[in-house]
Design a protein that fits this description.
alpha+beta, 3 domains, four-stranded antiparallel beta sheet, 7 helices, binds zinc ion
Length: about 230
């Protein structure tokens, strides 16, 4: 008689950019091992590929493709999968804002929420003729920039461009080679890059968690919000 197959629980999660609920399951011991090995390698490409593969396996929803998810949604999904797999509490270091005393806090990662940072302006004029249309960065574009080892500024921009336009023509970014796209980004003026950052990239929503703790050293009640939640896991 063969061993019985255990039923793996399935959970639901709201994805902000996608605008709908998806179903996912926790990862298995085998998947966790693969993930840990990738993290230990410290290789960006390997960590990225393994996380995507793991997310893909855990997403029990055929209507959604992981590589098409925006980065924000992937982060939400990764954290949710992890919290159902190895626990909902993570330890992080916080600093009292009054006396700078450092302490370790146990945080319930399921209390994560999406913070909107204003209204990202997705159409920006680069000069009198050409404008640029931006989109929430998706994984496949970030993946390409990792493979191509573009620097941080270029890759952030590269992953956000949807198309360039003038009065009569639309130049869809996906129709061009990586080399052509990088060339275009590298040729942007400093002022335009600043404009894109301030009006779009800095205003993209982010996953945050609210901390509330009383400092054991000076007694001050601290209230703060932290982002970059994926950093807690690595
Ligand atoms: Zn203090």
């Amino acid at each position: 008689m063969s061993l019985p197959t255990l039923q793996i629980p399935v959970y639901e999660l709201d994805l902000f950019i996608l605008g709908k609920k998806v179903k996912y399951r926790p990862y298995t011991v085998k998947e966790e091992k693969t993930l840990l090995m990738a993290m230990e390698s410290n290789e960006e490409k390997q960590i990225f590929e393994t996380s995507i593969r793991c997310c893909d396996a855990c997403l029990v929803d055929d209507s959604v493709k992981v590589e098409e998810l925006s980065v924000l949604d992937l982060e939400t999904l990764l954290i949710a999968i992890r919290s159902k797999s190895v626990g909902e509490s993570v330890e992080l270091q916080a600093k009292c804002e009054a006396c700078e005393h450092k302490l370790n806090l146990n945080v319930d990662i399921t209390k994560m929420r999406v913070e909107e940072n204003g209204e990202p302006q997705d159409k920006i004029m680069l000069d009198e003729t050409y404008g640029i249309k931006l989109k929430s960065p998706s994984l496949d574009s970030i993946y390409l920039s990792i493979i191509n080892k573009t620097d941080d500024i270029s890759s952030a921009l590269l992953s956000c461009v949807d198309f360039v336009y003038d009065e009569t023509t639309t130049y869809s970014f996906k129709d061009y080679t990586e080399k052509e796209k990088i060339q275009f980004i590298d040729d942007l003026s400093v002022e335009n890059v600043k404009k894109i950052n301030e009006q779009f990239i800095d205003k993209l929503p982010s996953n945050v968690i609210d901390l509330s703790f009383k400092c054991p050293a000076c007694g001050k009640q601290n209230e703060k919000t932290v982002g970059n939640l994926l950093d807690f896991f690595t």
